[in-house]
Amino acid sequence: MINFQALSDKYDTPLYLYDFDHIKAQYERLKEAFKAKKSLICYAIKANSNLSVIKHLGDLGAGCDCVSIGEVNRALYAGVKNYKIIFSGVGKRDEEIKEALEKDILLINLESEAELYRVELQAKSLDKKARISIRVNPNIDPKTHPYISTGLHENKFGVDIDSAKRMYIKAKNSPYLDPIGIHFHIGSQLTKLSPIKEASKLVSDLVRSLKVLNIDIKFFDIGGGLGVCYDDEKPIDPYDYAQAVFSTLSGLDVTILCEPGRFLSANSGYFLTKVLYEKTNGDKRFVIVDAGMNDLIRPSLYDAYHKVEIIGKDTTDEDTKCDVVGPVCESGDFFAKNIKLPKTDHDDLLIIKSAGAYCFTMSSNYNTRGRAAEVAIEEGNDRLIRKRESFEDMIALEKDFLK
Ligand code: LLP
């Protein structure tokens, strides 16, 4: 049991806590599910890119899925080996491509034909052969929130199957490109297996047709997207997930790459915030807390649900409903709407759950609010893994330019 009150007293709020034992257990569940084949789990560090979180997963054997050269460098800095790092993203700058090639990472994942030529050019300038994969957009509806759906032609990601085939042939004929991977990622917070299986089948058929052309795909990258439970969702079991993918791979000798973010870190995370005041506007009750949408934007941005609990008081059916809101000057600055909470007092502690993925990483300094501190809990011990941002931190890159 985590002693939230003691940790809030020790580190103050707003505060992110990550249970490293949970992250480890999730990693091991997934690794175990894939054990019948060669696999590498490349943690999608966009979900939570704290160096200590990356190192924790790296030490367990994970690689990293990165979406900018900044993320590649974060992964390397945290000690992840270059040959376990993949670099995706629809818009890579030449400098990013060049640096990724110099750092000799496992794969650059191409998302357009135009990008293929840029990568070829950069590889030529370095006299290198770039290991590439191509992100296939299978045009399959993943049945998730439209903002986190990525596998439909109307989404900007990847290329259609026919274009992918053309690109593989071009790459095969280039002295500077080595097409050894294939990739798909149809969306995030997936709770239905059938779209994943359908995509895997389409992409594995493409791998078979490439084999006939002497293009030998070694890495079959199934992306990320495994959903988790925020409320009452029924997440996909990792074993069923692996079996569904395996069932599409008969006759193929490939290493499976998998890029989970949320699955590994979301439910390791707790966001702690203290009550400042309560008030009512007419009949409407508000609980105002010391954290805002700048700290955790998912409810404001996606109307995402995060469970909110109060520490040290019981919530009963008799309690009235309230909105839990922050101090930021936006009506969209809320964590929960119309939830029941007992009467709160100044300094009561609230916990916002499932806060380990896409929460801190999407935080900002809006309203000149310093980012929260981050703490790891591992085997019963807690330790600071990121300091609370100070006013000095926030003005550091501007103050020398004051005229
Ligand atoms: N691989 C690729 C190519 C991706 O684009 C993503 C996520 C992942 C892997 C990891 O997906 P995951 O396993 O975490 O579902 N900010 C949104 C989520 C955006 C996801 C973007 N891509 C949210 O807060 O829900």
Helix proportion: 25-40%
CATH C-level of the largest domain? Alpha Beta
Strand content: 15-25%
CATH superfamily of the largest domain: Alanine racemase
Alpha carbon gyration radius: 23 Å
| Number of continuous helical runs | 12
Number of strands: 17
What's the order of the H and E elements? HEHEHEHEHEHEHEHEHEHEEHEEEEEEH
CATH topology of the largest domain: TIM Barrel
Q: What is the 3D form?
A: globular
Q: Give the total of domains.
A: 2
The CATH architecture classification of the largest domain is: Alpha-Beta Barrel
User: Whole-Å distance between the termini?
Assistant: 53 Å
Low-confidence stretches: none
Strand count, sense and barrel status of the largest sheet are: 9 strands, mixed
- Heteromolecules bound: ligand LLP
In a nutshell, what does this entry contain?
It contains twelve helices and 17 strands. By secondary structure, the protein is an alpha/beta fold.
Structure, described:
The protein has 403 residues and is an alpha/beta fold. The chain folds into two domains: 7-15 and 267-390, Lyase, Ornithine Decarboxylase, Chain A, domain 1, CATH 2.40.37; 20-266, Alanine racemase (TIM Barrel, Alpha-Beta Barrel), CATH 3.20.20.10. Helix content is 29%, strand content 23%. The chain is built from twelve helices and 17 strands. The model has no long low-confidence stretch (mean pLDDT 96). Bound molecules: ligand LLP. Residues 44, 47, 65, 88, 148, 150, 185, 188-189, 223-226, 259-263, 298, 357-358 line the site of ligand LLP.
